[in-house]
Automatic annotation (TrEMBL), chain A:
The lineage of its organism: Bacteria, Bacillati, Actinomycetota, Actinomycetes, Streptosporangiales. Residues 3-79 form the 2Fe-2S ferredoxin-type domain. Pathway: Alkaloid degradation; nicotine degradation. The keyword Iron-sulfur applies. It comes from the Bacteria. This is Carbon-monoxide dehydrogenase small subunit. Keywords: 2Fe-2S, Iron, Iron-sulfur, Metal-binding, Oxidoreductase. PROSITE patterns: 2FE2S_FER_2. One of its GO terms (molecular function) is metal ion binding.
UniProtKB/TrEMBL annotation, chain B:
SMART domains: CO_deh_flav_C. GO terms for molecular function: FAD binding; oxidoreductase activity. Residues 1-177 form the FAD-binding PCMH-type domain. Signal peptide: none annotated. Keywords: FAD, Flavoprotein, Oxidoreductase. InterPro entries: CO_DH_flav_C, CO_DH_flav_C_dom_sf, Diverse_Substr_Oxidored, FAD-bd_PCMH, FAD-bd_PCMH-like_sf, FAD-bd_PCMH_sub1, FAD-bd_PCMH_sub2, Mopterin_DH_FAD-bd. This is Carbon-monoxide dehydrogenase medium subunit.
Length: 158, 284
């Protein structure tokens, strides 16, 4: 049976018809064409598919689209205005916090929420905040640096 | 890695949810946070014909803290309860549950109903002798029963929730005066299920002597292994830790041998009991 739902994705209401078993990750990618959200493990381990649900980072592969009918979703495409980069994205580029980039959308969403809730995290808080996202390229050091750099950029902007 | 098809139900209130669960019976499964259920569906480890999504039942998301303890509703997320800091041991255990992003969706009551013997929250419920409230639809009204931790945690991934029932809340008794608690565990990777863990509660009398000491161990039995070490602790925490080692039933698996787990529980029990006693004495 198909369900008609409305998701407010990156500020725009999107109406879509999905079967109940459609994962939010697949709904975003296949039904809405937002392929910035990546799908890695599909059981909640890798963190690639992390999006913001009403501002809170969640695994889109462990959420059914029908469950979040009517809610606000922010994907990596919505972190910055068209053509621009957010402070977190600039910091990742500046600090070489990505190589292949597959895990990056998940990291960006996670870090965006982390710095909103805690604008000046300690090293330990950064590691705890990043602990649910896997990266197979960088060795994490530059990602941790990028979080601190993003915190500086955000502090300068505000 | 996609879930098998199921019929989806999204009740708006508790009556509706319980009526639906009564109707679908053994074919139904409750969806709350989904952080254990959806991986199991994605991996096709289960295929329920009906999913009853309780995420719209707003009356279930409450957390009520009182002098006797804290009652956590079925929709209260790990992160919400962690931030509420209404119970020191529960707060500490929640920080050991998976990762912050998982805790944004996962629910406390869901972790209990999932009844993974390696999970932290069932051990907290067990060591505190807490309880879970189960509700069902019967003769046109809601009927409830309160089930103590010992009866609630039946076996590995098996709780006392019957088909048609919903775990609506869990009660974690307060620690009380001159009482300290600690949770120690060891995981191969941060956020993984631990190889073993020990949750300890120690109460001192007015002279600072041990009045009661209890632990619950994770990952070393079919359910959290609860051991009263009040007597054994008269010969010190090392003796108490040895007593705990005698009670557990660790098994070999690809992550660790039974012998290693038994050794580990001894070390963790010593640390947890010592930490709980220091906290009870006000020196945490």
């Amino acid at each position: 049976m198909e369900h008609e739902i409305t998701l407010v994705v990156n500020g725009t209401a999107r109406r879509v018809t999905v079967p109940a078993r459609r994962l939010l990750s697949d709904c975003l990618r296949h039904d809405l064409g937002l392929t910035g959200t990546h799908v890695g493990c599909e059981h909640g381990v890798c963190g690639c598919c992390t999006v913001l649900l009403d501002g809170e980072p969640v695994r889109s592969c462990l959420t059914f689209a029908v469950t979040v009918d009517g809610r606000d979703i922010t994907t990596v495409e919505g972190l910055a205005p068209a053509g621009g980069l957010s402070a977190v994205q600039r910091a990742f580029a500046e600090c070489h916090a990505l190589q292949c980039g597959f895990c990056t959308p998940g990291f960006l969403c996670t870090v965006t929420a982390l710095l909103r809730d805690n604008p000046a995290p300690t090293d330990e808080e950064v590691l705890e905040g990043l602990s649910g996202n896997l990266c197979r390229c960088t060795g994490y050091q530059n990602i941790a640096k990028a979080v601190h750099r993003a915190a500086e950029l955000l502090a300068e902007e505000s | 890695m996609k879930p098998p098809p199921f019929e989806y139900h999204a009740p708006r209130d508790l009556d509706d949810a319980l009526r639906t669960l009564a109707r679908v019976g053994t074919d139904g499964k409750v969806l709350a946070g989904g952080q254990s259920l959806i991986p199991m569906l994605n991996m096709r480890l289960m295929a329920p014909a009906h999913l009853v999504d309780i995420n719209r039942v707003a009356s279930l998301d409450g957390v009520e803290a009182g002098a006797a303890g804290v009652r956590v509703g079925a929709l209260a997320r790990h992160s919400q309860v962690e931030r509420g800091r209404s119970h020191p041991l529960l707060t500490r255990a929640l920080r050991l549950v998976a990762h912050p992003v998982i805790r944004n969706r996962g629910t406390v009551v869901g972790s209990l109903a999932h009844a993974d013997p390696a999970a932290e929250l069932p051990a907290v419920l067990a060591v505190l002798d807490g309880s879970v409230r189960l509700a069902r639809w019967e003769s046109g009204r809601i009927a409830t029963r309160e089930v103590g931790a010992r009866e609630f945690l039946v076996g590995p991934m098996e709780s006392a929730v019957r088909p048609g029932e919903l775990a609506v809340s869990a009660f974690f008794p307060a620690l009380g005066p001159r009482t300290g608690a600690a949770f120690e565990e060891l995981a191969r990777r941060h956020g993984d299920y631990a190889l073993a863990g020990v949750c300890a509660v120690v109460r001192l009398d007015e002279d600072g002597q041990v009045a009661a000491a209890r632990v619950a161990c994770t990952g070393v039995g079919p359910v959290p292994v609860v051991v009263d070490v009040t007597e054994a602790s008269r010969d010190g925490w090392d003796a108490a830790a040895r007593r705990v080692q005698e009670e557990i039933e660790p098994e070999d698996d690809i992550h660790a041998s039974a012998a290693y787990r038994r050794h580990l529980v001894g070390v963790l029990a010593g640390r947890a009991l010592g930490g709980a006693a220091r906290e009870a004495a006000g020196g945490a």
